[in-house]
Write a structure and sequence with these properties.
By secondary structure, the chain is an alpha/beta fold. It has 14 helices and 12 strands. Helix content is 40%, strand content 21%. α3 crosses α4 (51-64) and α7 packs across α8. The longest helix has 21 residues, at 221-241. The mean pLDDT is 89. It binds guanosine-5'-triphosphate and magnesium ion.
Length: 315
């Protein structure tokens, strides 16, 4: 029996025909390496094959690429290089294992005024602190899709953190994205900026609002998810390539089908759930208090913490 030829193209993978391959490419999964690094649900969502079939394709892609050949020692080394940015709240830091980590995507979802943007501001300030004070001695890229970036608030937080407000403002690059194309392109073209400006944190606030506004109706759902999926994939790639932290916010929508429990689910559903390394759900409590629930994390126990949004920032 002739030996099967090793896969070189997406179409060479088992279960991936030309149509599926096109859909994968449209979703940004355009190389065998990307297939090898994906979860079955990513592949299944992107091209509509079953999760079982997706798993077979991933296994074949893994065999054909060298992705698997990283030694455990190299992985340990990489884990040791992981940095953490303090949120300003000891409780929240502890909940997520010491702060928002690099080489990962952290997603916070919650209703309006729950504090998603405020945490983003605080991280953009704190990333500039030296390592021993809970920062990374680096700068931030803030992708603002809602027009809610407030430099005055950054100034208050910088002063409270003992940083020079002027310098702190200069170290935050703000991109106001007006549509999903601009949002996506900012991430696509970020490499040069990341290196030149020593970016150690990318904030996307919010990740989903423009997508929700642009892709209306059930017919557009698939297209929306594919574009969003590829955008998140790109962000995760940057996190890994430059060992930086990615913080994204997400609105919640009411889920009328749910009778018990909290009737809110993050927009983007599944795709976000498995692309984010850490997911936090934020909800209002009394006065300036907010309850943060750790929803999903590979290493930490699920749990809750309480933060306060004070004039000095997140505490
Ligand atoms: P949406 O973007 O509307 O979905 O909300 P969000 O989750 O981003 O909420 P945001 O982070 O904007 O939090 C808003 C809340 O933070 C307000 O209701 C205030 O309680 C608090 N807040 C905002 N600005 C300040 C400020 O300058 N000082 C203080 N002390 N609190 C503030
Ligand atoms: Mg906001």
């Amino acid at each position: 029996m002739p030996k099967e030829k090793a896969p070189h193209e997406l179409e060479d993978l088992p279960g991936i025909g030309p149509t599926s391959a096109e859909k994968l490419r449209a979703a940004g999964i355009d190389t065998l390496e990307k297939v090898a690094g994906a979860f079955p649900a990513n592949i299944s969502d992107a091209c509509g094959i079953s999760q079982d079939a997706a798993k077979k394709a991933i296994d074949a892609a893994r065999e054909a690429t060298t992705l698997n050949y990283e030694t455990a020692k190299a992985i340990l080394k990489r884990r040791e290089d992981i940095g953490r940015i303090s949120t300003g709240s000891k409780d929240l830091d502890e909940l997520i294992g010491g702060g928002v980590e690099t080489d990962a995507v952290t997603e916070v979802y919650g209703r309006f005024a729950s504090g998603k943007t405020q945490i983003g501001f605080q991280l953009a300030v704190n990333v500039q602190l030296p390592k021993k004070e809970g920062g990374l001695g680096g700068n931030a890229l803030f992708i603002d899709t809602e027009g809610t970036f407030r430099p005055e608030r950054i100034v208050s937080m910088a002063k409270a953190a003992g940083l020079d407000p002027d310098k702190t403002l200069e170290n935050i690059v703000v991109v106001r994205a007006l549509n999903t194309d601009q949002q996506v392109l900012t991430a696509e073209r970020a490499d040069k900026l990341i290196v030149e400006k020593n970016i150690k944190l990318i904030i996307v606030d919010s990740l989903t609002s423009l997508f929700r506004a642009e892709f209306l109706g059930r017919g557009a759902l698939n297209e929306r998810q594919q574009k969003l999926n590829s955008h998140i994939h790109r962000l995760a790639l940057l996190a890994n390539k430059y060992n930086l932290a990615v913080y994204v916010t997400n609105q919640v929508m009411d889920n009328p089908g749910m009778l018990f429990g909290d009737p809110t689910t993050p927009i983007g559903g599944n795709i976000l759930a498995h692309a984010a390394t850490t997911m936090l759900y934020l909800r209002k409590s009394k006065e300036d208090k907010r309850i943060v629930r750790l929803v999903d994390s590979p290493v930490n126990q699920e749990g809750e913490g309480v933060i306060r949004i004070t004039p000095d920032g997140i505490k």
